[in-house]
Fold:
Amino acid sequence: MRTSHIFLALPALSVAQQQFPLVDQVKGWFAKASDSITSVTNPVASGAAKVADSRVQPLTVANYKDVLRPGAATASPGIEEWMVFVTGGNKTCYGQCARAETAFNEAVVLISASSSPPNLALLDCENEPVLCNAWVVGPPNVLHFLIAQPLADQSTPATTYRSIGFNRTTVTATQIAAIHLEEKYKDKAPYEGIFHPFDGQLAQTGLMIPIGYAIWGFSKIPSWAFMIFISFISRNMMSRRMQPPAAPQQGGAPAGGQPAAS
Structure:
């Protein structure tokens, strides 16, 4: 009986020996195909990244006022257009901003070829969390500014500001480039709230950056510390409520410390 089982298993072993080399060949073919695709796309991405590095200015909490101002990049009068790409890393973009960064780099090439390209900047929330928290922005995002030159009396006109978000898994270079090339920024209403980077109440009163530091500081506090603090406060409140009220004093002496007359 055992011998018959062995003879029955021989055809299966023969088929397996024929199939495994085929699987290996298929795997090898896919590996070669992936390598060929990578070899074609990498030069394009690396070339776009080099162009972006030469044309895009990094924004920090220390230099954004000097970078984003009329006449900072060009001396032409009128209104200057700025596009600020917001990106991040593992903490601020969950490690999924690589596609958006590649799309932006390729969009820089398209935008730079236009007749009147905008000024370009980059805000990395991984390295500049205070500024991102102060502006209440997150990646991937494009901040569009229209900054006007000062008037004759040196007063500063309002800055038109829009925040345009993108899907980190489907964003393309043409979508980002269309913000300028097709003026797609006009499809979104300008933001005029308190978190406006230049004209909002927080920016005008000088509280924007301190609030950014405060939000960033709270984000660094671990969740268990908040739970301990809340538990401590709630226990104190409960203990005070459970304390019986003080009994009124009876037979007390009148003012002056003299005993009451009988």
